[in-house]
Design goal:
Radius of gyration: 20 Å
Low-confidence stretches: 1-5, 146-167
Distance between the termini: 53 Å
Strand order of the largest sheet: 3-2-4-1-5-6-7
Number of helices: 12
Mean pLDDT: 77
Helix content: 25-40%
Order of helices and strands: EHEHEHEHHEHHHEHEHEHEEEEH
Strand content: 15-25%
Oligomer: single chain
Length: 345
């Protein structure tokens, strides 16, 4: 482990597949910052800043609202120069610098290109990667979310035998693990003891190094475990292998997102059941958003991964705030937007 340069601000990169629980974990960190002054950079995937709103609603002094920066112009690993570096410059140009920076990547981001940015002269002299935390949805791993799709492989081979036939979602998942300094096996409340062991074994089989796996639910991990790893990952980037090491660049053209406006919800449980059915029928990867429930003074936060949805009233509506509900839908390219919009209602 490299010695930490105390003149540099430590930065933790939180990566993980869609719906793994990154935002919940970060919220837990904010609420237990133990005197640290934190700053957040959030790479929201989609046109509505749901993750940013979730974290702003914490209202904790450790991370004032002006220290929360959202990057919504695309995957952070593809827009490092255009978005990430200017955001860092703006953050460090303020009067009181943070003690620690936390970056939440989008679910589709590859962490290695972002770590490489910390070796740029303008960044290296001021920041260091304290650690890369990969958050994993244990139930999704065991459900085979990252397994190859035989039909898709056959179609790709027919079109071009030289084409890489690995499932792209599996590659994203593995690249996040390959770059990690710690893995958080989240949502363990959905697993039996035997299933937890199976999930750990699957994850450990991918990890190339001795990386600690922390088992938890609801992202509840002691900040002392996650912050202060002193990994200085930018100094050993070549040791963190990736499926994309030999590629000049990468993109995520196989994914798309769009936003639907949703009116007041009259029956909360029926609405969630409808979203679950839509996710199954249209093979939607992720849904998330805020909604007004008729007769309720608080805002309903909904987050779904496949057919699994979680919901809670996160805070009261502000006096002059628009109560227009907005739903972010994320999936592979080719989603039937019109059909999904009609089904949501």
């Amino acid at each position: 482990m490299a010695a930490l340069d105390t003149h540099k601000i430590p930065t933790t990169i939180v990566t993980g597949f869609l719906g793994s629980g990154k935002t919940t974990l970060i919220r837990h960190l904010l609420e237990r910052a133990q005197g640290r002054r934190l700053a957040l950079i959030i790479n929201e995937f989609g046109d509505v800043g749901v993750d940013g709103e979730i974290l702003r609603s914490c209202g904790v002094a450790s991370c004032p609202e002006e220290n929360i920066i959202e990057l919504a112009n695309g995957c952070i690993c593809c827009t490092v120069a255009d978005d990430f570096v200017p955001a860092i410059e703006a953050l460090l140009g303020r009067g009181e610098k943070p003690d620690h920076i936390i970056i939440e990547t989008s679910g589709l981001a590859l962490p290695k290109p972002l770590v490489k940015a910390f070796d740029w002269p303008t960044i290296r002299s001021r920041l260091t990667v304290d650690g890369v935390i990969a958050v994993v949805d244990g139930a999704a791993v065991l459900a085979g979310t990252f397994a190859d799709n035989p039909e898709m492989i056959a179609a790709q081979r027919a079109a071009d035998p030289s084409l890489d036939h690995d499932n792209p979602l599996e590659e994203v998942f593995e690249d996040q693990l390959l770059c990690a300094d710690m893995v958080v096996l989240n949502k363990s409340d959905l697993l039996t003891d035997d299933e937890k062991m199976q999930a750990r074994e699957q994850i450990a089989a991918v990890l190339p190094r001795a990386v600690k796996i922390v088992v938890t639910s609801e992202g509840k991990v002691d900040p002392e475990l996650l912050l202060g790893l002193e990994a200085a990952a930018e100094d050993e980037i070549d040791a963190r292998k990736s499926h994309h090491d030999d590629e000049p660049e990468h993109d995520h053209d196989e994914f798309e997102s769009f936003v639907l406006n949703v009116g007041p919800v009259s029956d909360q449980e029926q609405f969630i059941a409808r979203l679950s059915a839509i996710a199954e029928q249209h093979d939607v990867l992720r849904m998330k958003g805020f909604f007004e429930v008729a007769g309720k003074p608080m805002r309903l936060l909904v987050q779904g991964v496949g057919r699994r949805f979680r919901q809670n009233f996160d805070r009261p509506w502000h006096k002059d705030e628009s109560r227009q509900g907005r739903l972010v839908v994320i999936g592979e390219t080719g989603l039937d937007r019109a059909a999904i919009a009609a089904a949501v209602g």
